[in-house]
Structures are given as C-alpha cells and as structure tokens.
Amino acid sequence: MSLLDSLNPEQLAAVTLPRESALILAGAGSGKTKVLTARIAWLIQTGQVGPNGVLAVTFTNKASKEMLHRISTMLPINTRSMWVGTFHGLCNRMLRAHWKEAGLPQAFQILDMQDQLSAIKRMYKVLGIDAEKFPPKQLSYFVGSAKDQGLRPKDVEAHDEYHRMMVRLYEAYEAQCQREGVVDFAELLLRSFELLGANPTLREHYQARFKYILVDEFQDTNSLQYNWLKRLAGPQGCIFAVGDDDQSIYAFRGARVANMVQFENDFNVQNRIKLEQNYRSVGNVLKAANVLIAHNKARLGKELWTEAGEGEAIRVYEATSDQDEAAFIIDRIKKLVLEEGYSRSDIAILYRSNAQSRVVEQALFNAGMPYRVYGGLRFFERAEIKHALAYLRLMDNADDDNSFSRVVNFPARGIGARSVEQLQDISTAQATSLYRAIHRMEGRAQAGLKKFADLIERMRFETRGLSLPDLVDKVINESGLIAHFQADKDGEDRVENLKELVNAAASFSIAEGYYRDAAATMVDEEKLITPLADFLSHASLEAGDNAAAAGQDAIQLMTAHSAKGLEFKCVFVTGLEEGLFPHENSIGNSVEGGDGTSVEAVEEERRLMYVAITRAREQLFLSHAQQRMLHGQIRYHLRSRFLDELPEEVLKWLTPKRAHIASQGWDALDSKVWGQNKTLNVGYSNKTSKRPYDIGTGVSHAKFGSGVVVSYEGEGDDQRIQINFGRQGMKWLMLSLAKLERS
DNA sequence: TACGTCCTCCTTTTT
DNA sequence: GGAGGACGTA
C-alpha cells in the first residue's frame, strides 16, 4: 500500500490505529498534517468509513484546503462533500443546513470583529449607555470570552456592579443580533453547540454519521470547541486528536492546553503516541528550539530530534534601528536569492505584531522585491470591500442594520447623521429594521433615504438572473463606489481592489460549482441558499488572500501567529526585543493555566518564539534593533531574553554580542539620536521639568537593576520617568523619589 | 444640516 | 500611523 510507505514506525502506528480515541503528541515538523491526512485516506481506502463519515477539524482554511487536495490526489473520490474545515467553517455549514432548527434566518450574516464593534456601538446609543464607563471593546471581549466557555448571559456570574452591567449589555447585544439575524464568530460555535444539545434527532444523526473525528492543533481548542467535539462524538465517538502543547499560542482567545489531559480522561484514551522525530529543520535550528522551550515550566515534555545534519549556524544581528534591521534583511535576502539559489517564496519574514511589517515592506518595495503580506489588512477587511459587501448584504437582507449604517451615506448622498439618528429612533420605537423604518418616516429627511432604498431595490431587480461575478460588477458600479474612488486621487488601489472582488466572486463560483448550471442556483446537498448568500458567508470566514497574488514568487511576510503550521527554507525572526517579543503586556503577568494553576504569561510568548523558530528548515536569522519607531514614537528596547536563552554554540553573532546594557555604549547612540531629532522627549515641555538622563541612557536602580530611559512625563515634583528594565518590565518612577544611577 | 479638515487618542496575537 | 471625534464652514 503505497500510501503508507513513506511513514516512519510511529507515524504508521498512529495512522493505522483501530477505532479508538487517541492523542497524538506531535512536535513541530514531525509530519502532523501528513499523519492526519494519511489516516483519513487510509480509513476510506480500507473501507472502514465512507468520505462522508469523517469529520476533520483544522486550524485554518488553508490547512483544510491543502488536506482535501492531498486526499483527492491519493484517492479517486469526490472530496467536495467531505466535512473538512475549521471549527467556524463547519459550524457555519451545520447552521446553514439547519437554520430553522437553530432559530436563524435562512441567510444569516456573520459579523467580523469590526462589524461586531460597530453593532455594539449602535446599541450603546439606543440604550443610552456611557461608552466611557463601559468601553465597547471591553464588552466585545467580555462577550467573546463568555461564549468561548459556552456561557449565555444568564449563565455568567456577575460579582459586582461592573459585571452586572456587562451581563446586561451582553443580553441586549444578543437580543439585537437575534433581531438582525446576524451572528458573530463565537456565536457560530455556540449556536451549533446548543443546536446539538437541544435537538436529539439531529445530534444522533451526526453522531451516527461521523464515525471518525479528527482534530488538528488540539492544544488551541477552547472549552466550547472541546465540548462541541464531545457532544458531536457522542458516547460511541472516536476522536483522533493531534496537538503540541509547546505550540499553544492562542490562550488569549480561550485556548486551553488542559483540554489534552481532560480529553484523555473523558475518552479513556489508551493510545498516547509521541512523534518526536523532526523532518523539517536542520540540527542547529532544532537544538535552539529545544533549549528555548525547556525554559518553560508548564509542559508535557517532548524532545525533538532529527537525522538531518547541523546545517548553518543561526545568524543573529543587532541593528541600530528598525530601518537598519530592514536593510540587513534585504541584504541577506539578496544573497539568498542571487548567490544561494533560493526562490523568494522560500523566504519568510516573521514579526510579533502586524504594525512591524510596514518598515520592512517599505524596504522591500524600494529594493524592488516582490513580497506578500499575510494577515494585517486582509482583502475582505479593506474598507472598500466591506462597503461593496454591505451593498450586497443589503440586497440579500435589507434588515441588516450593520450594512445599512455602513453604506447609507457612502458614497456621500446627502444623508447626514441627523437623518440617520431620526431613522434610528423610529426603528427603535417600532421595533423594526432601519431599512423598513424609512417608509414610516416623514419630513424632508425622508427624500434622501427613500432614494437610497430605491437604489437598493433597483439593484436587486436589475441583477436578477445574473451570475455572481456579473452581479458584483453591477453593484460596485451602480452603487457609485467605483465612481467615488475614481474621483479620489488616492483611490486607484481601491478601484483595483473592487475589481478584484469581481474576480474573487468568479473564482468562488467556479470553486463552488455555481457555473455548471447557472439556472439552478439553489443546489448542493445541504446548501439550500443563494450563491450570493453563500459568497457573503465565505467572505466572512475567509481571509480571501488566496485570490490575490497567487503563484507570485514573493517574499512572505506575516506575524508569528499566522506562520503556525507553515514552513519555509529561510526564516527571519525580527524585532526580538523586550517589550515587543516578548510583548510588554505579557511581561510580569501571570495567567490562569486552565487547571487552576498560575503560569507566567511570558511562557506563551516563548511558545510563540518556539513556533517562529521551528518554521525554518535550513536557515534562520534573528534580529533586534536598539531603537524602533513604534506608535509614532521612538522607543528603546533591550535585547529579548529569548536571544539569551538560546544555546550559544548554535549561534553566530554578526554584530558583536554585548554583555549587557551597562556596556552598550549608549553615549554614541545618544549623540546619534539627539543629533537627528531634538524633540524626541515626549511629555517634556515645561521649564520646571528637568531631564537628568537623556532618553536612551542606561541607568540602574537598586531594585529593578539596569534599564534604559524611555520617556518623561509631568513636571516639578510630579515628574515621572519611564524606564525599560527589560526582564522587570517597563516602569514609571517618580523622578524625585527614585534613586537612579547612570550605568 | 452636511461635509471636509484637523487633531487627538490608542496602539498583540485571530477564526 | 490610522481611525474616529470635534470643530468650522458652506
């Protein structure tokens, strides 16, 4: 059986397990995806289950597509009806098939984070709640984390007045979503979970159908996802969970590593297989990763090994500034591409936060190197695309107040805030949508709104019978979006993007088979929805970046988070500075470990660093900068602790490694910095303030040790000084009290 | 009342 | 560096 030939004994054991639940602890680069895919193929090929009896959950849409593709090359089956996807994608599918039972409209819409926030803000206005006191962002976080645990408002414990208010808001938010027929990301999961709970027939149907459930990246499941799986599997269920506790990087969104242990207990797991051989990286990279992650206390324990050679040493570069760091990267990439024969797509540049990409992008652009940024502003999140989608949504469902508010006056058509406010009042009073409220309006404000409603109606009428791409094309023109951006001298890119949306619709139609029979548009097994509604939900769940620039040989830019699950021959990990990576919010904080224990938040950052390092197959470059422009302000960071935690023997410092802060020669830096810009010192403007240490100076403090002066604020006796103490974190100290010494 | 411009505020990671 | 709010003008 050729399918199994390329597997090692451990992998083979995992792939060919009998029908029992199993936990596979798979290290980075140990062939996780391969094992998952091979198991599915093996199960089907040996006739143990049909393609429809398998449910596989992956972490990204990209991963599921890849998996389906691989299966289809191995087996002569139609993979289109297979249930392989993300939690959100699968729950969406289930809810679309059972919208009635789930209490949703047939064409419900999915709110992304941005939409969610604006929905919340509108609700605040209606309820007259002080947004200062109860920040909408916090509500959105509150709602999200409650739902991640499977909690509805009635189930949330409210300890104090603040919590009680939050619960009240949560309740109101839910009522509003219900009224508008929209769901947010978390709601998708929760609805599906509740649907399975409330409807035994349906539950038993799915339990009988999915004889085998496979889960990738199991360490990143939250409680709700875990319970969803449990409910779906049922008493006879068989779950094959693959994960790596060292790669758990989504605690901020409720991921619970403890699920792994709970899974073993709940399902009486007899098979725990460890995959520790790494097929991805050279020895030096692996050694660095092993030593780094050993600094974490909370681990199940695993040691990766490889048969590959040591490979190149890991190169470390200390840049003087973020610009210098980018220049170093460009320089190295040129060598890799021109002298060492790598293609550009073999090379990835990773960073901790999206904002860091800009400097590198600029440098790549100036050097004429094609690049591609993942994440950040995704295609479907761009303002112009969201506007176009909002028009499409309104045509599909006029009661969608979110979309209505977005485009009612975009492009500007003389409908001001006042008119919308009046409309809002009417819709609240009559408990109807904004769109319907138009007809009940009176006075001059109505004229403009009426015209807008007519526009939507006209577009709906005129696009009847058109194919999806033609429909989209018609709408971006009729709505005036194209004209608006064409008139804008900076709008060229936006026009391009809008045209790209037509292409995206076209490729979606082809992928989903809507072209095969344009007349019979309601098709496909469980999919009883129009192509438009289908496309809209697709837009909410997919980043949509596969359409753009596919096939281009380009340098890959992404956050360490988005790099999970991917691999590249050459990897640059940038911005290795205290406060950035590890991120300042994590330094000195503890988080609940999921089983009642307290874990340092930095451990998650370290896992993230571990993920970043282990993306590299052959060459790894690490860099940090002495000063960096952040939030429009120059900041000085110490070298990341992670660099010091790596084993010295696998590193090669391209710049001299400095012992520590005291000997860093800050004098030279001072003159450089102050020579360029005399106004660096934010918050300092008054003559009663003094500045005994220049920004960027190294100082030492009896308790916190050595650090770097970052900024000042206040004046006189209240004047405070901000110092980056590296490991001890960023501190604000009263200048008059703190005993500081120049170091 | 509508719209453009200036200013201020905030600033992790994502399906 | 960007988004949203405040303000001034048509």
UniProtKB/TrEMBL annotation:
One of its GO terms (molecular function) is DNA binding. Residues 5-282 form the UvrD-like helicase ATP-binding domain. Gene3D superfamilies: 1.10.10.160, P-loop containing nucleotide triphosphate hydrolases, PCRA, domain 4. Keywords: ATP-binding, DNA-binding, Helicase, Hydrolase, Isomerase, Nucleotide-binding. Residues 283-565 form the UvrD-like helicase C-terminal domain. One of its GO terms (biological process) is recombinational repair. GO terms for cellular component: cytosol; DNA helicase complex. It is an enzyme of class 5 (isomerase). ATP binds at residues 26-33. Pfam families: PcrA_UvrD_tudor, UvrD-helicase, UvrD_C. Its EC number is 5.6.2.4. It catalyses: Couples ATP hydrolysis with the unwinding of duplex DNA by translocating in the 3'-5' direction; ATP + H2O = ADP + phosphate + H(+). It comes from the Bacteria. PROSITE patterns: UVRD_HELICASE_ATP_BIND, UVRD_HELICASE_CTER. Belongs to the helicase family. UvrD subfamily. This is DNA 3'-5' helicase. It comes from Limnobacter thiooxidans.
